[in-house]
Amino acid sequence: MDEQEALESLENEGFVKVYMHEDSADVTYTDHSHEKKSAHIIIRGSMTLVVQGKATELQTGDRLDIPAGAVHSATIGPEGCRYAFGE
Question: What is the pLDDT of residue 12?
Fold first, then answer.
């Protein structure tokens, strides 16, 4: 899936806030939550998301949806990560 397909997919599913994001290697996001369901689709690189204590490593092409209000954190892989985000 390319960037445009990922963004269109999220929009078609009803996500209101949809955009591409890119992080440098080894960036860390501490525990936080979103009021609404969110989704990450990995375009390039990797990311480990910990959702309510369960770690999932995402690689290029993977997707993970996070329920509204779920506490989660993320660590970007050693090569950085570009991903489509929907909320």
Answer: 98
41 in Cβ contact with 5 (< 8 Å): no
Longest Cα pair distance anywhere in the chain, in angstroms?
Answer: 32
Which residues, in sequence order, are CB contacts of 15 under 8 Å at separation 6+? 37, 39, 86, 87
Going by the DSSP 8-state scheme, the letter that residue 6 receives in this structure is H
What are the beta bridge partners of residue 75? Answer: 28, 48
Helices vs strands, H then E, count in the chain: 1, 6
> pLDDT, tens digit, for every residue of 15-38?
999 999 999 999 999 999 999 999
Q: Which of 41, 61, 60, 64 is nearest to 51 (CA)?
A: 64
| CA-wise closest residue to 37 among 8, 57, 10 | 10
Q: Quickly list H helices, the chain.
A: 3-12
pTM of the complete model beyond 0.90 = yes
